[in-house]
Amino acid sequence: QSVLTQPPSVSGAPGQRVTISCTGSSSNIGAGYDVHWYQQLPGTAPKVLIYGNSNRPSGVPDRFSASKSGTSASLAITGLQAEDEADYYCQSYDSSLSGSSVFGSGTKVTVL
Amino acid sequence: QVQLVESGGGLVKPGGSLRLSCAASGFTFSDYYMSWIRQAPGKGLEWLSYISTSSRFIYYADSVEGRFTISRDNAKNSLYLQMNSLRAEDTAVYYCAKYYYGSGSYIDYWGQGTLVTVSS
């Protein structure tokens, strides 16, 4: 049971906008720690999609965006494309875990 | 470019041991924290361990504390994970990862992973 909760799945048609929530608590997101997002395409290793709450590494399309508010964060994908079908994980630091970061439970995005 | 190449995975019996290695290149290895993360079949990501640049600071998840040992050799640009007393629930793909440790710590590069299967 992860301390960062994500919906197990979200889906959308090509071109639509989907959002993935990441709900934490006062010991992680609510404490002001940064949230990061990873994309894991089928059969591959994860890669960083968003770091520092809302920053995209070079090469990540600007249709991926993220925000944070209170004890939650969210990732938005606008103009959904077939190649966006993947698992998405949020990650943050948690002060209750003896000094380590933690991943969210993961969300499977399906493009209809 | 950054490359992280894991090796050492395989099939091991419950109670057995295995040592994973990760060869790093494309960056100054000694300047960065490193981490091991695993993913059980069909499951999410689990942060196992991290090690500071000089090996002074080390973290283990409760699930592996006392059984797994992380280490690094900066002269060889290599990261290791010694796994003892392995259990069926340790079956997973193990990823070596470059850990950007700062005001907002995150994994900026991942290896391709190595599969560890614990079964009799």
Could you outline the blueprint of secondary structure elements for this entry?
The complex is a heterodimer of chains A (112) and B (120).
Chain A: E1 9-12, E2 18-23, E3 35-40, E4 47-50, E5 64-69, E6 72-77, E7 86-94, E8 100-103, E9 107-111
Parallel strand pairs in A: 1-9
Antiparallel strand pairs in A: 2-6, 3-4, 3-7, 5-6, 7-8, 7-9
Chain B: E1 3-7, E2 10-12, E3 18-25, E4 33-39, E5 45-51, E6 58-60, E7 68-73, E8 78-83, E9 92-100, E10 106-110, E11 114-118
Parallel strand pairs in B: 2-11
Antiparallel strand pairs in B: 1-3, 3-8, 4-5, 4-9, 5-6, 7-8, 9-10, 9-11
Helices and strands of chain A, in N-to-C order? EEEEEEEEE
> How many β strands of chain A by DSSP?
9
Secondary-structure-derived class of chain A: mainly beta
Total count of strands of chain B: 11
Question: What are the key terms here?
Answer:
heterodimer; A: 112 residues; mainly beta; 6-stranded mixed β-sheet; 3-stranded antiparallel β-sheet; 9 strands; globular; B: 120 residues; 4-stranded antiparallel β-sheet; 11 strands; 0% helix
Written description of the protein model:
The complex is a heterodimer of chains A (112) and B (120). Chain A is mostly beta strands and 112 residues long. Helix content of chain A is 0%, strand content 45%. Chain A is built from no helices and nine strands. Chain A has strands spanning 9-12, 18-23, 35-40, 47-50, 64-69, 72-77, 86-94, 100-103, 107-111. In chain A, strands 1, 3, 4, 7, 8 and 9 form a six-stranded mixed sheet that branches. In chain A, β7 and β8 (100-103) form a beta hairpin. Chain A is globular. The termini of chain B are far apart. Chain B has 120 residues and is mainly β. Chain B is globular, with a radius of gyration of 13 Å. Chain B has strands spanning 3-7, 10-12, 18-25, 33-39, 45-51, 58-60, 68-73, 78-83, 92-100, 106-110, 114-118. In chain B, the strands form two sheets. In chain B, strands 2, 4, 5, 6, 9, 10 and 11 form a seven-stranded mixed sheet that branches. Chain B has a four-stranded antiparallel sheet with strand order 1-3-8-7, with no helix packed on it. In chain B, 0% of the residues lie in helices and 53% in strands. Chains A and B meet through β7 and β8 of A and β5 and β10 of B.
